[in-house]
Write a structure and sequence with these properties.
Layout: H1 9-19, H2 23-30, H3 34-41, H4 49-59, H5 63-67, H6 71-82, H7 94-103, H8 105-129, H9 140-150, H10 156-172, H11 175-180, E1 185-189, H12 191-194, E2 199-202, E3 207-211, H13 216-231, H14 233-240, H15 248-267, H16 270-280, H17 284-291, H18 295-302, E4 316-321, E5 326-330, E6 360-365, E7 371-382, E8 390-400, E9 421-422
Parallel strand pairs: 1-3, 6-9
Antiparallel strand pairs: 2-3, 4-5, 4-8, 6-7, 7-8
Helix pairs in contact: 2-3, 6-7, 6-8, 9-15, 10-15, 13-15, 17-18
Length: 464
């Protein structure tokens, strides 16, 4: 029985994109023409056995995985999607569905992606209407944050292995030399050659390519991230083994978070970093200089010092942009940050954009009397050239007020006597009456009319 031709267009296209290659670059490495690559990716030519072997050898891939035919899977997934009741009144013969999946894989992928996005939006709407449902499928970011928070942002197996590996890297003379000893050549290339990537691993030539416009600390960070994804792959996989995530995106976000954790542990090994933290009294800028890392990397690492018996000050970490969007959050220190809606505008994390490079400290008091100490600074990433955009965000750490004297930023101040700024979790949950910064009325309070009297605050509340 003759085997059917192997059409792997979408799979080859995904592989090429993952490797960061143009059709021309892949064609050169495989010894074929770019137009032939284009025909294969459009499923207008089958993938021959000879080309399959060349692909496996060039990019060190498992041939069985590479040769797996997507057509049956595409047909099944498309058929499953089209059984949704929304399509019930449309005649969709199985043979036609299979033919679309086999002949038009690009259209099939687009339909599946669109249907998946529609499903997630439906789930999000359902979650809003039924907040108690507990579904996290529509919130992969929240699911990833809960995964990290449930483990107190401390992963002992990763820290332990990273400490051992950090010693090896130091002995080798640094990450670049350590990689070179393992036959991985590091090259720093201009952005136009990098094709919008800041790090790319060329598996064919065993080269790690880094954007040459990155700052020294960012270059080092990209080097150790590659080491984390390769040399610490087993430890990362062990942490997530057996976990069931609601979506692939959530799983990918957790994996990314663990790789970042591992990279920080390589640059700032637990014992050495913890001793330096005590000696420098949590001076983030001093620690940055000592370990050759950025302000944000040190601030993030401070949230991970939770080894039993060797804990340091517990911190809450947040990164926000000028519009108030939260791009990173690490829960800790019992700081009740709002899960939905904007944060309190009275918190200085929103003011640092006016004083870039300056650490701004603030004592905070919540409506229930809890007091915290926070430090924040605006940091800039990207750029590196006249026409390259940069992004400025604000990084903030907050700890319980009683820990502030251990920090260089809170030295000499009695936490109980410090003048604190009254803030709320979010306007909808804050019942402070005298707040001119309020954006919304709190839930459960009646608003008085302002026909005859308008207070300085945006809203006046009834007594009950």
């Amino acid at each position: 029985m003759a085997s059917r031709p192997l059409y792997l267009g979408p799979r080859l296209k995904r592989l090429r994109r993952e490797l960061g290659l143009t059709q021309q670059a892949m064609a050169d490495e495989l010894g074929i023409s770019p137009s032939y690559i284009a025909l294969i990716e459009r499923n207008q030519r089958p993938l021959t056995a000879d080309l399959l072997i060349r692909l496996a050898r060039a990019y060190k891939l498992d041939m069985a995985d590479l040769a797996a035919d997507d057509r049956d899977d595409y047909a099944r997934r498309l058929s499953d999607s089209l059984r949704d009741p929304i399509f019930a009144d449309i005649d969709l013969p199985a043979l036609e569905v299979a033919d679309v999946a086999a002949s038009f894989p690009g259209v099939t992928e687009a339909l599946l992606r669109l249907y998946g996005a529609w499903q997630r939006e439906q789930e999000a709407l359902a979650d809003q209407r039924n907040a108690g449902s507990g579904s996290s499928a529509s919130d992969p970011v929240g699911e990833a944050r809960r995964f990290v928070a449930a483990r107190r942002n401390y992963f002992p197996t990763i820290d332990s292995k990273a400490e051992e590996l950090a010693v090896e890297i130091d002995k080798a003379g640094g990450p670049q030399e350590w990689l070179r000893a393992r036959s991985v050549r590091v090259r720093f290339l201009p952005p136009d050659v990098m094709m919008d990537a800041i790090r790319r691993y060329d598996r064919h030539n065993e080269q790690l390519l880094i954007d040459d416009t990155l700052s020294p600390s960012s270059r080092t960070w990209q080097l150790v991230q590659h080491i984390a994804y390769t040399a610490l792959r087993t430890e990362i996989s062990t942490v997530i083994r057996g976990e069931s995530f609601a979506s692939q995106t959530a799983g990918n976000l957790v994996r990314r978070a663990l790789a970042g954790y591992a990279a920080a542990a390589l640059l700032m090994p637990y014992d050495r970093f913890a001793r330096a933290v005590d000696a420098r009294r949590y001076d983030i800028e001093a620690l940055s200089g000592l370990f050759g890392t950025s302000f944000e990397q040190v601030a993030h690492r401070l949230t991970t010092l939770n080894r039993p018996g060797q804990e340091r000050v517990p911190f809450f970490f947040i990164r926000v942009d000028a519009a108030g969007n939260v791009s990173k959050r690490l829960d800790g220190a019992g700081f009740p940050f709002a899960a939905h809606g904007g944060g309190c505008p009275l918190w200085s994390v929103h003011d640092t954009f006016r004083t870039p490079g300056k650490v701004v400290t603030q004592w905070l008091e919540l409506p229930d009397g809890q007091r915290f100490f926070s430090l924040a600074r605006a940091v800039t990433s990207g750029g590196g050239g006249f026409d390259r955009p940069s992004t400025t965000r604000s990084i903030a750490l907050a700890c319980a007020a009683e820990h502030a004297p251990r920090l260089v930023y809170g030295a000499g101040v009695d936490p109980k006597a410090a003048v604190a700024t009254p803030i709320g979790v979010t306007c909808r949950l804050c019942h402070r009456v005298a707040c001119t910064a309020r954006a919304e009325p709190p839930i459960g309070r009646e608003i008085l009319p302002d026909d005859y009297r308008r207070a300085a605050e945006p809203f006046s509340f009834a007594e009950s």
